[in-house]
Each structure stands twice: as C-alpha cells, then as structure tokens.
Amino acid sequence: MLRTIPDMSRSRVAILRTSPKTVLEDYHRLMNLAGYQEVIDRAADTALKVNISWHFFYPASSTTPWQLDGVIRAMKRDGYASDLMHACHNRTVVIDARLGERENKQVDVVEAHGLRNVHLYEGEEWLDVRDAVGDLTKKFLVLNEVFPKGFSIPKRFIGENIIHLPTVKTHIFTTTTGAMKNAFGGLLNEHRHWTHPVIHETLVDLLMIQKKIHRGIFAVMDGTFVGDGPGPRCMIPHVKNVLLASADQVAIDAVAAKLMGFDPMRDCKFIRLAHDLGLGCGDVRDIEIVGDVEAASMNWNFDGPFKNMTFASKNQHRIYWGPLKKPVEWSLKTWLAPWAYVASVSYHDAFWYPFVGKARVIEALESDWGRLFANWGTVQPDAEGRGFPDVGGRHPELVRIGMKHFLEAFRLIGMAVTESPELQARKRRMAQQALVGG
C-alpha cells in the first residue's frame, strides 16, 4: 500500500482521474499538485519534449494532442510566457517526426498556440558531451564504452527547462517506458541504437546528464490511452483515464510501472539503478502520492512486453541479448546497419499496422478519447476551458488502409536508408574529400 503522509522532502507524484469533459482543467490541477512551478524556471526557455513512438496514430504510442494542449494552457494560465516555450522533437531512423507530428495532431496544437517548433536534427547545433558536462562523464555507467570517441548533445538544452510528455505504456527493451526513456531520442546522437544492449544503464547516464544541463526537469504522463504488450508500437490499447506528473523522473516511472502491474524495483532495472544512485525514488512505498490517492493503488495486471512478442521483437531480443548477438550485432555499427532499419519499417508499417493494428485503432476510435482525437480542431473547449463536453462523432476512416497507406510505407522504407546515419556520414566524408581535392 502506498504511503500518503505529506512530506516535502519526499519525491512527489500527482495522479488524477480524468475525462474529456475536464481534461484541460485536470492537467492544470495535476501540474500544480506536483509542484511544477517550484522546478520550472519561468525566466528560462522551456522545451516541451514531445514523444513520437510511431509516425502513424496509434493509441498510447505518442504524446496526445490534449496532453500537449493541457500543459501549454496550464503554463500560460500560470504566467509562463509563450515565447519562452517550444515543442521539441527528435528524429530516429525508423520514425518520420514530421509525419508523426501531423498524424498525431501535435503540430496543430503548437500552431494554435503560436509556439516555436524545434526539430533537433534540423539546423540545431550539437555540443560534445565532455564540453557540456565536464567530469560528470567519469561517472557514466556505460556511455564511455559505447561511444569511446564521445558523442554530442543539443547545445540548446544547456540551461533550458524540459518537460517530458510520455504516455503510459510497455516497451520491448525496458519493460515499461516513460519519463526517463523520453530523454533517449533527444539527448543521444544518431547512433543511439548502439546502446540497446545496455539500455537500462544508458537511461541512468542520460538522467545524470539531464540533471547537470537543465534548469528544471518535469514530466507529465498521459494515461488516457495506455498500452500493453510489445510496445511502443505493437501494443493493445486500453482506456484508463489517468494523468500523472512529477519533478522526479524515477518516481513517476515507478508509479506508472506499479499501475501497470509491475514491481518497479524488481522488474525495471533502469528504475532500480537510478534509485540506488540517488537520482530519484523508485520505491513506491517512499513516494508521496497527491491528488487521487486511491487511483494510485490500482493494478491493471498488464501482461507486459514479453508474453506475446511479435516476430520483430523476438528477433530484436535475439540480436541484442540472444544467439544472434555475435553473428549479427556487429553489422549495426557498420555501413550495413540500414538493413535493420528497413526490416523494422517494413514489418511495422507495411505489415503489422494494416493487418493487425488497424483493428485495434478502429476500436479505440469508438471511445470518447478516440472521438476527441478524430475531431481535434473542430470540437472546442467549454467557455471555462475545463475540457471538451462534446467530442464529436465517429471517424473510423482515420485509420490508414489501402494503397495510400502502402505508398506511405514504401516512402518510409526508402527514408530509413537515405536518412540513415551511416549513409549521411558517407555523404559528409565524400563532400569533405571533394572539397579537399578541389
């Protein structure tokens, strides 16, 4: 049973039940219950770190539009300046962030509020981590071994606040994923997949970096839709109607893991490691729960990511931790690596989504949250700005099917090759050679 005696010295996680009718007011209350104004400096720029785990809309996979909208409205209401907020996106070799922000309607929210929209891989300056954090690199658990020549982090992060916007879901590499994992794409360079064999330790190293470089760190987690199974893409969505927030990245991940039915300190190595190093509290017995205390005692009894693994997830595990590690993993650090990106996009975008996932999306669109998503931008909040009393009608046609989807999937397969860091590095070398030769 969670202890609930208020203690300002303890890590605090806020949790609320919500509905479309009250979701905007609930986000404002949630963030203040968790004390975000105590850690997010209103004089500094604040990055709203959007999560895009799939460029297609898939419930529980990515930051929801009402999550992003609720956070922005809450900050504006509390006096934070719009010109000191921006949405923040990273890129991966298998996810098209530009497509993702459109399909998940995040860019609609950003434009409606007139915020800047920063894509970290488009014209942003990156800084060597040793110049950014100095001797902290000596405390890294694994990143020095994974990247012996060092790696870069976004220069703009130095001195910024960051608010992470994950969803409640499972993950095939880390059992669960949330606030700590949300830093993965934004902080590491394009070879971040090299860290997969030591992903738990990597997340701990990244939290050390965040604590060093950011002015303030906060997380707001959406559990309106939640995902169980081999996430972050091939999940079974559920409607759970909860929201969480905390300034302690370890604590919020621990509470979310407990809700899903896991023992955070036993089942989530990254939580246990971070807790043991004093980077946050992973023991739910020592976390102060505020808001809807009873909601924090729920147990959804998730199956987790390993019970019904997909073809793709089974082979990922074989490559990083199983019998394929020696014969195959080496290729992911060479010019051959794009084979893995093509395989992932082909399986998930061209096969799993249209033949398995679409039925789950159609079912989710029947829910109130699904209808709110489908009608986002046409339905309006009530006069008090509490939420959406009318979520509009059904729109199952939002699910991508047919030739249009397959053409998009083939484009994404091509992108996985042309935008791969290996090919981009080769282009840079050839350009340099041509310049020297000229």
Cα-atom Rg, whole angstroms? 21 Å
Oligomer status: single chain
Query: Averaging pLDDT over every residue, what do you get?
Result: 91
Point out poorly predicted stretches.
1-8
Topology pattern, helix = H, strand = E: EHEHEHHEEHHEEEEHHHEEHHHEHHHHHH
- β-strand percent reads 15-25%
By DSSP (H or I, 4+ residues per run), the number of helices equals 18
Provide keyphrases for this structure:
single chain; 438 residues; alpha/beta; 10-stranded mixed sheet; two-stranded antiparallel ribbon; 12 strands; 40% helix; disordered N terminus
Would you give an account of this structure?
It is a single chain. With 438 residues, the protein is of the alpha/beta class. The protein has one domain (12-437). The protein contains 18 helices and 12 strands. The strands form 2 sheets. Strands 1, 2, 3, 4, 7, 8, 9, 10, 11 and 12 form a 10-stranded mixed β-sheet that branches. Strands 5-6 form a two-stranded antiparallel sheet. Helix 1 (23-33) packs across helix 2 (65-77) and helix 2 (65-77) packs parallel to helix 4. The chain is globular and about 65 Å long. The termini are far apart. Residues 1-8 have low confidence and may be disordered.
Produce a short descriptive summary.
It is built from 18 helices and 12 strands. The protein has helices at 23-33, 65-77, 97-103, 106-113, 129-133, 143-146, 179-182, 184-187, 199-213, 249-259, 264-267, 269-276, 311-321, 325-328, 338-364, 368-374, 402-418, 421-437; strands at residues 12-17, 46-50, 85-89, 116-119, 126-128, 152-154, 161-165, 167-171, 175-177, 217-228, 236-246, 288-291.
